[in-house]
Design brief:
The structure holds two protein chains of two kinds. By secondary structure, chain A is of the alpha/beta class. Helices cover 40% and strands 13% of the residues of chain A. Chain A has a single domain, classed as TIM Barrel (Alpha-Beta Barrel). Chain A is built from ten helices and ten strands. In chain A, the strands form two sheets. Chain A has an eight-stranded parallel beta sheet. The N and C termini of chain A lie close together (12 Å). The longest helix of chain B has 24 residues, at 133-156.
Amino acid sequence: MLTIGCHLSTAKGYTAMGETACSIGANTFAFFTRNPRGGNARALDRSDVDGLRRIMAENSFGPLVAHAPYTYNPCSAKESARAFALEAMREDLERLEALPGQYYNFHPGCHVGQGAERGVELIVETLLQVMWPEQRTCVLLETMAGKGTEMGRSFEEIAEVIARVGEKRPELADKLGVCLDTCHVHDGGYDVVADLDGVLGEFDRAVGLGRLRAVHLNDSKNPRGAHKDRHEVIGAGYLGSEELGGGLKVFSRIVRHPALSGLPFILETPNELDGYAREIKLLRELAEA
Amino acid sequence: MDLRERKTRASIKQAFLALRAEKSLERITVRELVERAEVGKATFYLHYRSVYDLSDALQREAIAEIVGAIAEPEAYLAAPDRVTRQLFEAFRTHADVVDVLFSGEQAGVLAQSVEHAMRLRVAEQFPQVETDPRVSALFTFEIQGGYYAYRAARARDSEAQVGASPAEQAAVDAIAQAALAITGLIRADG
């Protein structure tokens, strides 16, 4: 069975997220690790977390994909921004140990003119400081569209970060993985529409498919290589719309691909809950057809 | 959504509408938006992925309100003239927000989105609108054609902004009649 869900609001707590997920036919979801109001995360309520665990067990959920807030920039040129990212990521990872989620996804950040080489160095430095060998959570670097000075624009760039962490602390590298965003890689120039096998082959050569732990399933408002990062609802963008050169067959191939089988698929499409429910239903049909 | 969250969203929306009335979507930065809304950048990113995401969300909200203003959108094929009139009434009521949110490059999004929302409602009782290519094409023609005819009529009519002028009323009457005729073509397949 396809493991699929969408990004949910943490406002009403963990049990409520589990209930909402079930109500839209989801068996995973993504959520922000912290409510950045005042910089402090909500204190964990054990019974609330246990409620979510129960729902997950009863409904055969797959792994959850926690998401770091977009405001972290571990490779900023500003010391204060890097320090904030470091502090916040460490706190997030500590808190995630008490949650059922197994994945922590983050945007590698923007090098803001320092160059990609320096960007890689800074991300590696951050990861070495926020991770520890016994942690349960796997940290996922997200593939990015490459707008502006965004890091993670190519599989090679992500592979470089993982390799360098591995050189210094091999025991930490085991806890590193990748979240592939279909809109981002398409915007980044990879031909998801016509050559999914080729794209995954390239990923395998650069990073290794074993590192691929989650998929952000999004359509794109822009043509391949646009480096824009504007998500579209499934079927209305350059991946899923026949008018734009794609088609639902593109998503069908993604959700049925053996290399992606069993991974959590997270929708980040511009939708409200009813729209997500429809997309989840559609993608389940495509997966089972 | 609690009260504080609603207030945050409302101030972000107001700030965005003010900025959007001044310039194109592409030129609005999160920084100026949060300054005007008097919320933190982190708070903004808790709710939206980007300025584009915010624009998409507000567009969806507007579409939902427009389609929600129609008493029984699923009765479209039974009474297309009545639904058409209600639809344009809803456009007029929401004109201030709609004109801002769907200006410039976003202009084409409105007709498509309204059609999509109507289609979902109609398909609940009349699945042919999704499954039969001929019915589907006629439905697109009906909704999007009607919308563009209405918009062009409004653009030609200098008094349109203040309410339903006689010229606008005449245009809506004509579009409602056209909707009846097109629905006749759809039913002929029935």
